[in-house]
Amino acid sequence: MKTLEKKKNKNKRPIQLPFGFTLVELLVVIAIIGILVGLLLPAVQAAREAARRMSCSNNMKQVGLGLQMYHDVYRELPAGWRGFEEDQETPHWFGVPGWSWSAAILPFLEQAAVQDNLIHFEYPISDPINDDARVAMIATYRCPSDIGDKTFPLNDGGPSVVTGISFPIEMATGNYIGMFGTEEFHLACNPSLPTCNGCEGNGTFFLNRQCRFADLLDGLSNTLVVGERNSLYAPSTWVGVVSGGEHGVARVAGVSSYPPNSKQTPTQYFHNFSSLHPGGTHFLRADGSVRMITEFIDEEVFHAISTRAGHEVFIEP
């Protein structure tokens, strides 16, 4: 009997269960994975933007250190830009050679090779001898969050003291521009208007003249000297002002008439400060510190910290 039972057990086949997922189960798994990915992607993007924002802040700190060292050597900050008529004596806001403050501090940003090998300061920016300098990309002057190209075409549209310039001219992009102040360029710089004051802004960087830290009577920690501008509406440059270029002066300096990222007319986009950071726009103070300012800042406070000697009394939030 035992032998027969063993033979019967040997002849029995193991029960096979169904293998794989049903269609409903597969759809549920796909839906769960989609939800998890949907929750994860914004966190990844936020982390990447936080890293880009920190890198942008570090770039500005490097610019601040460069300005500090320049001041230590020359006992003054560089001029916002250099512009004269062809006689090299009469100031002109769209004059030559046009080189900006950001070109002057290159050796203090470990970019002495660019200044020594590519830039010929005695010639206008538009001169063919400066072709390579005009398109040189300086990483310290670029915001990692900016979506613009490394260069942009500069069209004509401004007054000129040079003839024979062939526009458009390709220019290197830069996201950090000097603080001209609260006065509009055309009012302070256009000699045909009674409001012209020789293009001297009430900020830190303007035509042909240098500020000292002693001139910043509002205090170094209360004075903005450099701000950020994105390339979406108003591409700027570290190189300088090209005589005859469209919005040439506004490519290297900015006006704080409106809070950063304010939605104004296209002309005001070129004069304003802006960024693609969701939290606000970076600004550099004269003491070398960097802060982020939102578009909701009180205009009076923004104007006060944009001027060098306004003697305003305010409590910064």
What descriptors fit this protein?
single chain, alpha+beta, 5-stranded mixed beta sheet, membrane, 317 residues
Form type: globular
Sheet with the most strands, sense and barrel status:
5 strands, mixed
How are the strands ordered across the major sheet? 7-5-6-8-9
User: Could you tell me the strand content as a percent range?
Assistant: 5-15%
Query: Structural class per helix/strand content?
Result: alpha+beta
Low-confidence stretches: none
What is the CA-based Rg, rounded?
A: 29 Å
Total number of domains: 1
Task: For the record, give the distance between the C-alpha atoms at the N and C termini, rounded to a whole number.
Answer: 97 Å
Give helix and strand order, one letter per element, not per position: HHEEHHHEEEHEEHEEH
Helix segment count? Answer: 8
Mean pLDDT: 88
How many β-strand runs? 9
Share of helix among residues?
25-40%
Protein name: DUF1559 domain-containing protein
Keywords: Membrane, Transmembrane, Transmembrane helix
Pfam families: N_methyl (PF07963), SBP_bac_10 (PF07596)
Protein architecture, described:
It is a single chain. The mean pLDDT is 88. The protein is α+β, with helices and mostly antiparallel strands and 317 residues long. 30% of the residues lie in helices and 13% in strands. The strands form three sheets. A five-stranded mixed sheet has the order 7-5-6-8-9. Strands 1-2 form a two-stranded antiparallel sheet. It has a two-stranded antiparallel ribbon with strand order 3-4. The chain has one domain (46-306). It starts with a helix and ends in an 11-residue tail after the last helix. It has helices at residues 2-11, 23-74, 101-104, 112-117, 131-134, 185-189, 266-271, 299-306, and strands spanning 81-84, 96-100, 151-154, 169-172, 176-181, 224-228, 253-255, 281-285, 290-293. The radius of gyration is 29 Å and the shape is globular.
